[in-house]
Amino acid sequence: NRLHATDVTSSSFRLLWPKLLSQETGYYTLEYAPAADPARKRTQQVSGAHTSLVLGDLAPETTYEVVLIPESNVHYFPPQTTRVTTLAEEISPVQVLISESGPRSFHVSWAPVPDSVVSYQVLYGPLPGNSVKVLEVDGRHNSTVVEHLAPNTTYLVTVTAVYRSGKEKSLSAKACTQEGERGE
């Protein structure tokens, strides 16, 4: 029965509060700022008829201090406060680089590596074809080596970021293995 947030995303949240005022008896002043940077405070006035408001244009992975001040011309209501932390931005891998390509292996790296990724899945298989293998890579790492490949073959490599929220984002690249040495 007090000020709280719902529908939290990386850049917005909805505030809900109890009905303390009415259109006739006053209005609310809403102040909010990043907890780490109170100087960036923003203020908004809301009609006394409202009991909810969406705040947008926020920074991701940031904790906001929110103060709701009921400005009543009838009663004194103490300010209500809450803290809300926005979610991490879910960004997909923006680039996938293939390097150190040999006849039987190549190196795959990707960027960026946001904190909100639990793990990466590297899927690879020869083109054309539908035999796909998967490598699981820890979310803190940004590269892996793919081995036991066929020489002189084009592979499709897909890097999928698996976020804490359960969402997944993918990006693909093509890689070619070198021709094998004679006698392989």
Quick tags:
184 residues; Immunoglobulin-like; 2 domains; 14 strands; rod-shaped; glycoprotein; secreted
Question: Can you describe this structure in just a few lines?
Answer:
This protein has strands at 4-6, 13-16, 26-34, 42-47, 52-55, 63-72, 80-85, 95-99, 106-111, 117-126, 133-138, 143-146, 154-163, 168-176.
Structure write-up:
The mean pLDDT is 92. The protein has no helices and 14 strands. It has 184 residues and is mainly β. The chain has 2 domains: 82 residues, Immunoglobulins (Immunoglobulin-like), CATH 2.60.40.10; 83 residues, Immunoglobulin-like, CATH 2.60.40. It is rod-shaped and about 90 Å long. InterPro entries: ECM_Regulatory_Proteins, FN3_dom, FN3_sf, Ig-like_fold. Keywords: Glycoprotein, Repeat, Secreted, Signal.
SSE map:
Layout lengths: L3 E3 L6 E4 L9 E9 L7 E6 L4 E4 L7 E10 L7 E6 L9 E5 L6 E6 L5 E10 L6 E6 L4 E4 L7 E10 L4 E9 L8
Antiparallel strand pairs: 1-2, 2-5, 3-4, 3-6, 6-7, 8-9, 9-12, 10-11, 10-13, 13-14
Rg computed from alpha carbons, rounded to a whole number of angstroms:
26 Å
Average predicted confidence as pLDDT: 92
Spell the H/E element sequence. Answer: EEEEEEEEEEEEEE
Number of domains: 2
CATH topology of the largest domain: Immunoglobulin-like
What's the number of extended β-strand segments? 14
Q: Roughly how much helix do the residues carry, as a percent range?
A: under 10%
Task: Describe the largest sheet.
Answer: 4 strands, antiparallel
Pfam family, one: fn3
Main location: secreted
Keywords: Glycoprotein, Repeat, Secreted, Signal
Organism: Mystacornis crossleyi
